[in-house]
Amino acid sequence: MTGHWCSGRPQPAGASITPVAGAVSAKRLRSSSSASPVELRGVTKRYPGQHEPAIGNLSLEVPAGEICVLVGPSGCGKTTALRLVNRMTELSGGDILIDGESIRARPAAELRRGIGYVIQHVGLFPHLTVGENIATVPKLLGWDRKRIAVRVEELLDLVSLGKEMRARYPAQLSGGQRQRVGVARALAADPPLMLMDEPFGAIDPINRERLQNQFLRLQSEIKKTILFVTHDIDEAIKMGDRVAVLQKGGKLAQYATPPELLMSPANEFVEDFVGADRALKRLSLLRVRDIELWKAPLVRVGEPTAAARTPGDADISHPLVVDDEGRPVGWLSERDLAGETVPATPRIAPDPILELDDVLRDALSDLLQSETQYAPVVDERGRVAGVLSIAIVSDFLASDDAAGLAIPPAERVGT
Fold this sequence. Notes:
Number of strands: 16
CATH topology of the largest domain: Rossmann fold
Structural class: alpha/beta
CATH superfamily of the largest domain: P-loop containing nucleotide triphosphate hydrolases
CATH class of the largest domain: Alpha Beta
Strand content: 15-25%
Distance between the termini: 20 Å
Number of domains: 2
Shape: elongated
């Protein structure tokens, strides 16, 4: 895959990924776009010849500008629910409202032109170029050529595909590039609602994570209302503002924010589906700054070691050497403490050095990989802000303080 979505220009695959910082196309989209709330009211779908409904009395509300992820085992009605929203499948009962208006209030074809739709295998027209694929809905809406050309260029820039891609055909693109074209096509008419059915399911794991991250950054700019289907609970927790866990028959087992889902599963089905490692999954929704860090005895080079042997009100006994700016230099060993003064080069390196904005799961991984119980945490200037330990993480996850905290989806891009 070449480049990253929201950089404003293509970058090498190994380049660092940074959030959008005022790209012209993103500004245009943000200023002109809108998002509509969606409400499912007692939605039911029955197929002829089946005793049980595919979806039974499903009700939920999705606020404008949020991502709602529908997740559950195969056959639970996730995709059926999505297709009911744009009337690719017709309701048997109940109703669906988009911005307060029933989906039945307009002809199905007209409704679909106002809803973006992205599917797992993209569904690009193979005989059309990238530009022509993106222009599909604007052409159906009767836009003039100049307006369409501007929009196509704007969207190619938004998803970080170079202008030269416009004339290529889908067969000439990588899987990740085709998926990005699919997203651009879904955004072409600036819809207030997007439906995404397993959009990254056919992508290899490495590029899948990149696409997830890039889409979350894109969503932070365009702020669409999105219904997103996946069978992967990890993807659901990462992508969703809210997660709807469905079970067989399209029954809603739980509708909650990711932290609520992980902290308080509604029943045994949800608990089993979320998995026994739900406490570890919770770490991907928190940052190091969310935890009250331990204090370490801080000493400076040349100070008497006698003072370092008395931890005072510190939470740990091992002294941490810092420089004149308060940045970590190393931990004092017993041999260091046997000397009269604090050495310039302590025997124990301060690694790993963590940051306040590190995702807690990544920070714990660094601790385990370094085979250490705790590590210094620094602020944006590199000064020691405290110490993170495995014990703190364990205690915090078991506390009530963790229940209401969560990184917004757009900031979960390192998880």
